[in-house]
Specification:
The protein is mainly α and 180 residues long. The protein is built from seven helices and two strands. Helix content is 59%, strand content 7%. The longest helix has 29 residues. Pfam families: DUF1993.
């Protein structure tokens, strides 16, 4: 059986690494076209959806909330990243800080807590569930959704992103048959 740690912390790390890489590629695309890359942060897939800034912010909040709920220590940082008006530089800083925080979580901090009751906010409602349900049914689907929308926003603006850009980090440990 996969451990709660392996199901959560390494996967969240890969989501944040992918988010950073996709954002960097979108920024490079904008700069190469002589566009202000900061304008990307206000772009949306559809008018009633979150802009790019908030798509990334949700990923950060969920990652930090997961750290807090499973291992403690993320809540203060989660509260600090919900402010509006973030720059690309600030987004990269927050991604890097969250990635650094994920590296401090050890399997001993998380494993064995599958049945511990945790809370999560979903559309202004505080919900209670087991830590395992939190990770499997809330945290991971949420960060994958917002990563997909982040990708879609940048792709819709013309950034040269492909499936490989989305899955490369997740598949880094895969081996080609016969390769040694």
């Amino acid at each position: 059986m996969t451990s709660l740690y392996n199901l959560s912390i390494p996967v969240l790390t890969e989501v944040l690494q992918t988010t950073r890489q996709v954002l960097e590629k979108g920024e490079a695309f904008a700069r190469a076209r002589g566009l202000d890359p900061e304008t990307l942060l206000s772009e949306r897939v559809y008018p009633d959806m979150f802009d790019l800034r908030l798509q990334i912010t949700v990923i950060l909040v969920v990652a930090r909330t997961t750290i807090n709920e499973l291992a403690g220590g993320g809540q203060e940082l989660a509260a600090k990243i919900t402010e509006r008006g973030q720059s690309l530089e600030k987004m990269y800083t927050l991604l890097d800080k969250t990635l650094a925080q994920l590296t401090t979580v050890r399997s001993a901090d998380v494993d064995g807590k599958e049945r511990v009751e945790v809370s999560c906010w979903f559309f202004n409602q505080c919900l209670r569930c087991s830590a395992l349900d939190f990770v499997q049914k809330y945290a991971l689907p949420t960060v994958y959704f917002h990563l997909s929308v982040t990708y879609a926003i940048l792709r819709s603006k013309g950034a040269p992103l492909g499936k490989k850009d989305y899955v490369a980090v997740f598949m880094k440990d895969f081996a080609l048959p016969g390769a040694e």
